[in-house]
Amino acid sequence: MKKIFILALMLTICVFLPAQMDTKSITEKNTLPSSQEELMELSACDTGHYTYSVEDYFQKPKQSTFRFSPDGKYISYREK
User: Fold this and answer.
1) Where are the domains of the chain?
2) Going residue by residue through the chain (80 aa), what tens digit of pLDDT does each one get?
3) SS3 for the chain, per residue?
4) What is the pTM of this model?
C-alpha cells in the first residue's frame, strides 16, 4: 500500500511539474485584447460631466441602521 501511494505521488509530481515550469508561454501572451489606437479612441469618448464620481461610490454612508417601527408607520436611522 505504501509503494502504491509513493508511485501515485511521483506520477502526480511528474505530470504537474512541467506545467508549472512553463513560464515562457505566459509572458508571450501578456498583451491587451485591444490595440493602442482602439484604447485612445475609447478614452476620447469620455468627455462629459457626470453627476456621480468615483468618490461618491466609495465614501462612508451618511445614514445607516435603518429600522421600521413595530406598527410600520415610522422609519428611523442613524445619521453620521
Assistant:
1) 1-77
2) 888 888 888 888 777 766 655 556 555 666 677 888 888 888 888 777 778 888 888 888 899 999 999 999 999 999 98
3) CHHHHHHHHHHHHHHHHHHHHCCHHHHHCCCCCCCHHHHHHHHHCCCCCCCCCHHHHHCCCCEEEEEECCCCCCEEEEEC
4) 0.32
